[in-house]
Design a protein that fits this description.
Number of strands: 3
Shape: globular
Structural class: mainly alpha
Helix content: 40-55%
Order of helices and strands: HHHEEEHHH
Largest sheet: 3 strands, antiparallel
Number of helices: 6
Strand content: 5-15%
Strand order of the largest sheet: 1-2-3
Length: 163
C-alpha cells in the first residue's frame, strides 16, 4: 500500500528540472506516484493536479528546449484527442499523461512539427507499480544505470512479482 511518506518524497522530486535522463526518469516515476496518491485519495486532488500536469508540461518543454541534455528518448503530444495526451519515452520506458497544458510556444510549435511522431501505447499500466518504479528510479540514479534493456528487465520483474 502506498504510504504518505512516499507521496511526500515524490513531491520533493517535482521541484526544479532534471539535469540528465536518470533524473528525468525519477521525476516521471515521482509524478506517477502522485497521480496514484490522488486517485486513492491519499493526497488532495487540487494539490496533486496543481503540481502534476503543469510539471509534466514544464519538464517536456525544458527537454524540448534543451535537446543537448538528452533528457527524453521521445515525446508525442496528441492534441487531437480529448483530453489531450502526452506520451513520453524516458530511459526506454513509456509514461503517458492526460490533460497536460498545451499553452506555451515550445509545446504548440512541437505539436505541429514533424518531430511530433506517434508513440504507440506499450500496453504496460504503470500505476499499479508506481511505488516500485519510484524506488527503482532512485536505485537506477544512485548506481548510474543507463542501460535501457536492464531497466526494462527490472520493470518486467516488478510486473511479474506483483501478479
Amino acid at each position: 500500500m502506498l504510504e504518505q511518506n512516499v507521496i511526500e518524497e515524490a513531491f520533493e522530486y517535482t521541484r526544479g528540472m532534471p539535469h540528465n535522463s536518470l533524473e528525468a526518469f525519477r521525476v516521471f516515476c515521482a509524478l506517477n506516484v502522485i497521480s496514484v496518491g490522488a486517485k486513492k485519495k491519499l493526497v488532495d486532488n487540487h494539490r496533486a493536479n496543481g503540481i502534476l500536469r503543469p510539471h509534466v508540461a514544464r519538464v517536456v518543454t525544458y527537454a524540448l528546449e534543451h535537446p543537448e541534455l538528452n533528457l527524453l528518448d521521445g515525446v508525442y503530444i496528441d492534441a487531437n484527442i480529448k483530453p489531450n495526451c502526452v506520451f513520453i519515452m524516458c530511459m526506454g520506458i513509456q509514461f503517458s499523461y492526460h490533460n497536460i497544458p498545451l499553452d506555451n510556444c515550445t509545446i504548440i510549435s512541437f505539436c505541429t512539427s514533424e518531430k511530433n511522431k506517434p508513440i504507440a501505447f506499450d500496453g504496460i499500466k504503470k500505476q499499479p507499480i508506481a511505488e516500485e518504479m519510484f524506488e527503482l528510479s532512485k536505485v537506477i540514479l544512485a548506481n548510474n544505470i543507463t542501460d535501457r534493456k536492464t531497466i526494462r528487465e527490472r520493470i518486467k520483474c516488478i510486473l511479474y512479482l506483483i501478479k
